Amino acid sequence: MRTLRRVLSQPGTPYGRLALAGLLGLASAAATIGLLAGSGYVLGRAALRPGLDSLVGILATVEVLAFLRGPLRYAERLVGHDAALRALARWRLWLYDCLTPRVPAALAGWRSGDLLTRAIDDVDTLQDLYLRTLLPVAIAIGSAAVGVVAVGLVIPMAALGLGLPLLLAGAVPSVMAWRRRGAGERAEAAALAGDLSAQVVDAIHGAPDLLAFGAGEAALFRIDETARRLDILDRRHTLSGTVSSLITQLCLALAVTSVLALSVAAVHDHRVGRVMVAVLPLAALATFEPIAGVAQAVARAQSVRAAAHRLLALDEVPIPVHDPGLPQHLGSGVPDVAFHQASLRYAAGLPRALDQVSLHVAAGARVTITGSSGAGKSSLVNALLRFWPLESGTVAVGGIDTDRLAQSEVRATCALVDQRAQLFAGTLRSNVTLGRPEATEAEVNAALAAAQLEGWVATLPAGLETPVGDDGVSISGGERRRVAVARALLAPARVLILDEPTSGLDATQADLLLDTALAAASDRSVLLITHRAAEAGRCDTTVTLEAGRVTN
Amino acid sequence: MVTTLRRQLLEHTLALGPSWLAGERPGELSLTATRGLRSLQAYFARYLPQAAMAAVVPVLLLAWVATQDRLALAVVVALVIAVPITMIYFGREATKRSERQWRRLGSLAGRYLQLIEGLPTLRAFGREENGRREVAEATEGVRVATMRTLRVAFLSALSMDLISGFGVGLVAMVLGLRLLWGELDLPTAMAVLLVAPEIFVPLRRAGAEFHASTEGHAAADRVLQVLATATATATATLPGPTPSPRPPSSGPIVARGSPAPTLGIDRLQVDYEHRDRPALQGLTLRVDGGSRVALVGPSGSGKSTALAALLGFVAPSAGTMTIGGRPSSEVGREEWRSTFSWLPQRPYLFGASLADNLRLGAPEATDDMLLEVLGSVGLSDLVAHLPGSLDTVLGQDGLTLSAGERQRVALARALLRPAPILLLDEPTASLDTDTAARISQAIAPWLESRTVIVAAHAPVLLPSFDAVLALGAPFPMVPAS
Q1: A426-427/A541-546 β-pairing
Q2: Which CATH architecture has domain B2-228?
Q3: Distance between CA atoms of A151 and A499, rounded to whole angstroms?
Q4: What is the Cα B196 distance to its own chain's centre?
Q5: Element (H, E) at B344
Q6: Which domains occur in chain A, in start order?
Q7: Is B4 in the A-facing interface, judged by CB distances under 8 Å?
Q8: In the predicted structure, residue A369 carries a pLDDT above the cut 60
């Protein structure tokens, strides 16, 4: 329940629209009760053989109620779904905001396919909380109250005769649905759905590797296996609904019989008119219609709880880095970068990724970081860009400890060419101008020239407006890297971090690219991370890392 | 049924290969394969049984009503007949709209996955807002498309409600009048009135379940659309000289343990869409079994394309490839690929254990072999430091490893696969010179009697090559032996 309460207390939940939907639904349920009770009245009266004119009024009322019921439900559904979809949109943004401060380091072990399932499926499941739990339960309780009170006004004992079976029909299947096994199974199903999606995304991303290694069959087999387990859980879930609908039917029979018996007894004692024998059992019958949905609503709540759990779990991953309360600001000049005894560790028990690293990049200077792979070069970037906190020591930019700066300011100051050279769907231009959307044509061209991309762009049929596919796959590795270099050069940052900018290029091209890129960097401070000794010569200083320590 | 469809979708996706996948959104495909087909399951598990109920229960109840009162029967029958007509009419319209809704949801999934994976870059550039805006736009698109579908889908529920409402109202009126005229007694009339609403209940439920499974229908349509995409590279219909008519044999091209076969490439050309120049042109090469060949050239000169063509990922627009004298058109694709092991330029590591990743192409490799090959690529230290040793689960795409470590795990994976021809794409791209030199020596035993083709900017990794072929120049400068 705690999880569900947290979901319901989410700011921005459209309670106004939900309440409107509830009222419309209740009105529709009341119309149904009126329709059946009125029909019974018609029959009861008619059996007494009065004149036709005395029946016209009630006949008209019955037909109006018969008409109203449908449009009221239609309105309830539309308003309810609109409210739920608005809530879902909020949840997807909430999830995005949840991911943002935690990537890349805090979510390194999470699979993107699994995160995607949370963003799409689990968020979609939340709509069941509004549409298939809250609304049906509220409407069922409301209409039960209307029916019981109406019946009770005529024969007080009949309120009990109807109320008790209603309570049973609502409570017993609900308790059954809420029992532990069901909860565990829904959580398991939600987790399996996440696994399934992660496996599918993994197979799609890794398709070339799977194909080349003849491992596609094995991967598909694993996916089948997960799908089969999910399928079994889904089937069992469907079956459990059958039992509860049986119970509801039994309670319905009990209620109608007891109300009928009480009505007959009351008519016999001349406490009420004969017509009530027809009216009250039918009213009881109509009152039961919404209660049948309660057990299903509770069963849905299980799935919702499992989904909500998976969403809220992301919120519980600690945010590695927080902004200071009162951030300081950098001056306008080109800043220096100073690591002082900086240590960084990703998790207790793992060795330090950076171990008391001290290094200084003077304003406008170029420093090369070398070291074998796994020596801690990328951790240096994580520390500088504040993606991961230091265990001890400091990193300062422009003389100010980065702890005291807003993260956004640190990142606006330092432009990064990252190893993965991530591209986004869109045009080549939108990828190059990521850090500076307002860049002029001349600035864009200068950046392209500095990244040695001009010739290549000229061969593209649509030039800069050429779409790059999902993740820019239609672009070769070397070109991706150049796009990343152009993007970093174009960004209005005064410190450049080049993380292996030339990997995948041949020596001549690497030298050329580095020359033009460093020339374009002009007076900016540059941190060049490379494994090529030849590149070190272009910089003022070289720092060598080994197992997280500076060795020179 | 659904399981089969999912399997066919993924099998076909893999068969279409990397060049087709490049134009698709993995997030959308994943949504179709997972949630979409799961909804289709609801069609079979919930709608079909309910539809059967809807076909049987009303008929039984109507038969009973027929024994009680003919006029009431006439009224109910007229209305019951109206039910399928409205259902079909509105159902068709709603299905049409739900396809659009499904496309929107697919687009949302595709964009969301890309944002999840690109978020570190967006953060580094302070552009978190871009992604936020994209999420807001895509979800609003889903809401509008969904509401458009629902407005119609609920119309069918509305018509059902109206029909059953009027059914009860009219039956009450008919029964009332007959009572009034003394043609009916009250208990009979009451019984008919009690039964009348129940006739419509199964029909309404079936309608509701049908709409609940429209998502599955849209997903099934998408699956069929993918399945209808022809696998261009599958048939390997290469223009050029007609291969000599030789019956395709069913045995492997090369028996295990025998020397590597000769690989022949003749005037190979590859063109990509969106590019006005061929990515690779006139590549002619003969690689004898066990020799070492380097394909060198600047980036974009077609080295990776040549490897992709060898692996059957792209369809050559001209030229032929042969292994042991047999042209690729005569060999099944799986069999053709089993000749090669590959170190991709951008290797993908799976969200599984280190051991599982290494065993990708060699499921039967023992732990000792894994440790041995890891030692050869200089990763003994890494394994020793990993909390679960070989069983440590690497993040998706090996995110917990550095670029150099990823590349070396992928090299180890390629060495383990017992294939006669090794294709190594930029094997030293993320390695420093010392490491590369150490690995070069240590992997020598793994290369014995195998053919090795290194595609790189320069002849790297191996101490010597039998031939070096420069790409990007108008003519091959050094002809292969």
Answers
A1: unpaired
A2: Up-down Bundle (1.20)
A3: 77
A4: 50
A5: none
A6: 13-316 (1.20.1560.10), 337-550 (3.40.50.300)
A7: no
A8: yes
**In this complex, do A201 and B113 lie within 8 Å of one another by their Cβ atoms?**
yes
Spell out which residues of chain A touch residue B346, defining contact as CB-CB under 8 Å: 477
Q: From the DSSP assignment, how many helices (H) and strands (E) are in chain A?
A: 19, 12
pLDDT in tens, B218-252: 888 889 989 998 765 433 333 333 333 333 333 34
Instruction: Kindly list the residues from chain A whose CB atom is less than 8 angstroms away from the CB atom of residue B312.
Output: 211
Pick among B150, B168, B253, B381 to test the A interface (most A CBs inside 10 A): B168
In this prediction, what percent of chain A has a pLDDT beyond 70? Answer: 97
B61-80 residues touching A, CB cutoff 8 A:
none
Q: What single letter denotes the amino acid at residue A103?
A: V
Pull the structure tokens for residue A69: 């019921």
Structure tokens at A128: 């069941």
List chain A residues with CB under 8 Å of B207: none
Other CB atoms within a 10 A radius of the CB of residue B448 amount to 7
Could you please report the per-residue DSSP string of B464-481? --SEEEE-SSSS-SS---
- Shortest distance, CA B245 to any CA of chain A (angstroms): 27
Q: What is the pLDDT of residues A378-411, one digit of tens each?
A: 889 999 999 999 999 999 999 999 999 999 999 9
DSSP B196-250: HHHHHHHHHHHHHHHHHTHHHHHHHHHHHHHHHS--TTTS----SSPPP--PPPS
Structure tokens of A551? 């060795």
User: How many angstroms separate the first and last alpha carbons of chain B?
Assistant: 54
CA torsion sign for A34, A39, A40, A42 is positive
3-state secondary structure of A129: helix
CA distance B58 to B55: 7
ipTM comes to 0.85
Question: CATH for B263-470?
Answer: 3.40.50.300
Residues of chain B with pLDDT under 70: 231-258, 274-276, 299, 395-400, 473-481
Q: Residue B369, Cβ neighbours under 10 Å: how many?
A: 15
- Partner-chain contact B161 A196, CB within 8 Å: no
Distance from CA of B158 to the nearest CA of A (A): 5
Cα(A391)–Cα(B144) distance, rounded to whole angstroms?
48
Please provide the size of chain B in residues. 481
3-state secondary structure of A141: helix
- 3-state secondary structure string, A158-222? HHHHHHHHHHHHHHHHHHHHHCHHHHHHHHHHHHHHHHHHHHHHHHHHCHHHHHHCCCHHHHHHH
Contact between A484 and A501 under an 8 Å Cβ cutoff? The reply is: yes
Tell me whether residues B125 and A411 touch, CB distance under 8 A.
yes
Residues A116 and B138: their CA atoms lie apart, in Å, by 14
- For residue B384, the SS3 value is helix
DSSP H helices in A206-341? 207-212, 216-268, 276-316
